[in-house]
């Protein structure tokens, strides 16, 4: 489409007539007027050029407000959901959101957004390999704010190092064998609760979560499955935080695309 301007001259030559040619009235009239009004001709040419540039740009992949980052294409990203839910979480947890650990893929983006919140400190654990990250993420890793760690084993933090631990797009890939170790670890390093963002059964996962270093597809479990598993690990529902989260969600007309569970920390 961007090559259309190249067709202007042939059309003009045909319009000029000659043996065996058919005159084009519109083009001919423009030429006639151009002899008496060169400024009008120049203005028309500039207008046509602007229209052609805009038309070709729209076909060549110009930016659109509907575009989303490629890592969120093809499904739901619960890590992206965490970023959307930060205002709701702050309403539900209040002052407990002052020292937060996020565990999950693309944790740099979550940590960066949390650090912009007033009176909030944040750290992150990336359970997958960090590839093609931006300079901001490299800086967070260099400062030790974000670190890579295999969450199938003990987390590299002391007990109650954080007030709240938020995990997304990570537990869905763990078998019950490893969940038995990981969930207690999340509760151990938190003091005021654990928030889990998990996918729904039958839900498509985002591409960022498909590249699991655990080598297995996501197991999207029902809420009843998770509740039974929490009880087996002596993890209690944080009813107060759950109610506040629900109230804040209703007030802001926010409907999570992922399951959200609020658990108490180990006392």
Number of helices: 10
Strand order in space, largest sheet: 3-2-1-4-5-6
Helix share bin: 40-55%
Residue windows where pLDDT falls under 50 for at least 5 positions: 1-34, 55-74, 208-212
Give me the secondary-structure category: alpha/beta
CATH architecture grouping: 3-Layer(aba) Sandwich
The ordered string of helix (H) and strand (E) elements is HHHHEHEHEEHEHHHE
Number of strands: 6
Distance between the termini: 66 Å
Protein name: S-adenosyl-L-methionine-dependent methyltransferase
Transmembrane segments: 39-57
Keywords: Membrane, Methyltransferase, Transferase, Transmembrane, Transmembrane helix
GO molecular function, one term: methyltransferase activity
Protein architecture, described:
By secondary structure, this protein is of the alpha/beta class. The protein has a single domain (78-264), classed as Rossmann fold (3-Layer(aba) Sandwich). Helices cover 43% and strands 11% of the residues. The protein has ten helices and six strands, in the order H-H-H-H-E-H-E-H-E-E-H-E-H-H-H-E. The protein has helices at residues 8-15, 25-36, 38-59, 78-93, 107-115, 135-142, 176-188, 207-210, 223-232, 239-251; strands at residues 99-103, 121-126, 146-148, 164-168, 194-198, 259-263. Strands 3-2-1-4-5-6 form a six-stranded mixed β-sheet. The longest helix has 22 residues, at 38-59. Residues 1-34, 55-74 and 208-212 have low confidence and may be disordered. The chain crosses the membrane at residues 39-57. It comes from Trema orientale (Charcoal tree). Keywords: Membrane, Methyltransferase, Transferase, Transmembrane, Transmembrane helix. This is S-adenosyl-L-methionine-dependent methyltransferase.
């Amino acid at each position: 489409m961007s090559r259309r301007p190249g067709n202007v001259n042939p059309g003009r030559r045909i319009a000029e007539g000659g043996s065996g040619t058919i005159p084009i009235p519109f083009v001919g009239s423009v030429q006639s007027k151009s002899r008496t009004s060169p400024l009008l001709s120049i203005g028309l040419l500039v207008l046509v050029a602007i229209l052609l540039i805009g038309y070709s740009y729209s076909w060549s992949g110009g930016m659109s407000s509907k575009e989303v980052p490629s890592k969120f294409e093809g499904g739901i990203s619960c890590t992206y959901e965490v970023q959307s839910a930060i205002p709701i979480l702050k309403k539900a947890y209040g002052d407990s959101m002052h020292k937060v650990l996020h565990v999950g893929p693309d944790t740099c983006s979550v940590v960066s957004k949390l650090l912009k919140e007033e009176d909030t400190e944040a750290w992150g654990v990336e359970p997958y390999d960090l590839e093609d990250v931006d300079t901001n993420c490299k800086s967070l890793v260099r400062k030790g704010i974000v670190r890579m760690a295999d969450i199938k084993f003990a987390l590299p933090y002391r007990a109650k190092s954080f007030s709240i631990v938020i995990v997304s797009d990570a537990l869905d890939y763990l078998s019950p064998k490893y969940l038995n170790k990981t969930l207690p670890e999340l509760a151990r390093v938190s003091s005021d609760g654990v928030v889990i963002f998990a996918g729904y059964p039958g839900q498509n996962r985002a591409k960022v979560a498909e590249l699991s270093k655990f080598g297995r597809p996501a197991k999207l479990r029902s809420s009843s499955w998770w509740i039974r598993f929490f009880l087996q690990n002596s993890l209690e529902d944080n009813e107060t935080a759950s109610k506040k989260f629900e109230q804040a969600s209703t007030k802001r007309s926010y409907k999570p695309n992922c399951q959200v569970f609020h658990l108490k920390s180990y006392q």
